[in-house]
Amino acid sequence: MRRALWLGVIGGCLAACGDNLLTPVDAGLDAIDAQPVDVLTSTCSDTVAVIQAGNPGANAAAYPAAGWWSDDTRANGAVTVDVAIAPPPDLGCRSARFVTGASTASPSADKAQLITFASAGAALSSIASVSYWAYRSSASTGGPAIDLAINVSITGSTVPTGYAVLVYEPYQQSAGMAAIVEDTWQHWNATAATPGDGRWWTSKIANGPSPGAPGSQSNPQTWAAFQALYPDAAVHGYGFNLGSVNPNMIVAGDGLVFGTTTTDF
């Protein structure tokens, strides 16, 4: 398991295309057996690009136009795009891999992200589809609920303080923690309309007494509900997140669909 300080620019491969390569499933997830790890890097023909270090997402008023960023990856977290965890079929030979080391005190350094701002300015209401593939290694020693999440940051006058992050987590869907299967690629439909699926939350809505206000972490709501709640919201950034207070984890992601764009890492 890699437990390394993020040290600037790291290599990876990213290939974005305009048409969705995967068809989201209404039930919220689909699973396939884990694929054998391809360690022969020379046989990989994926387009090589660069993950950029830095945290442009910290400033909602300034963001890069293109590229993928480590963003709020912290000292005990790391993100790479490599062949260590072979992706699902038809998604090349590399995947985005996220690892965290030992837990630390506040500000919880065990955190890893991969975020793009290429869709910044797009209306949140125009994004009809969000889905992705996620993989949790059995070498992880974190709790059973920990899996790769999706973060979408938004701005707008109807958004509290003008900026918020919407979070999709697999364990909060209808099947709960039992749906997360180790050493298996699972497909998550983050905009599913089936009861109990496609649910998101934001820290800008206080939890309060259980079950908490609609849209809080304890009472997540559908993508459509957030589109209605923040009618003038615009996308700021989106991508993968292995959140803080999740030490000693190894997860991976690929085939990220956001609107009409699919990214094959």
Structure description:
There is one protein chain. The chain is mainly β and 265 residues long. It has one domain (10-264). Helices cover 3% and strands 34% of the residues. A hairpin with a 7-residue loop joins strand 10 (149-155) and strand 11. The two termini are 20 Å apart. Mean pLDDT is 82; it is low at 1-27 and 30-42.
Descriptors for this entry?
265 residues; mainly beta; nine-stranded mixed sheet; eight-stranded antiparallel sheet; 17 strands; 34% strand; disordered N terminus
How would the blueprint of this fold be written?
Layout: E1 10-13, E2 15-17, E3 29-33, E4 48-52, E5 68-69, E6 77-82, E7 95-100, E8 112-116, E9 130-136, E10 149-155, E11 163-168, E12 184-189, E13 199-201, E14 221-222, H1 223-229, E15 234-242, E16 250-258, E17 261-264
Parallel strand pairs: 4-5
Antiparallel strand pairs: 1-4, 2-17, 3-12, 5-8, 6-7, 7-16, 8-15, 9-12, 9-16, 10-11, 10-15, 11-13, 13-14, 16-17
The gist of it:
The protein has 265 residues and is an all-beta fold. It is built from one helix and 17 strands.
Radius of gyration over all CA atoms, rounded: 17 Å
The biggest beta sheet reads: 9 strands, mixed
List how many beta strands DSSP finds.
17
State the distance separating the first and last CA atoms: 20 Å
Q: Tell me, briefly, the overall form.
A: globular
- Trace the largest sheet across and list its strands: 1-4-5-8-15-10-11-13-14
What is the string of SSEs from the N terminus onward? EEEEEEEEEEEEEEHEEE
Helical percentage: under 10%
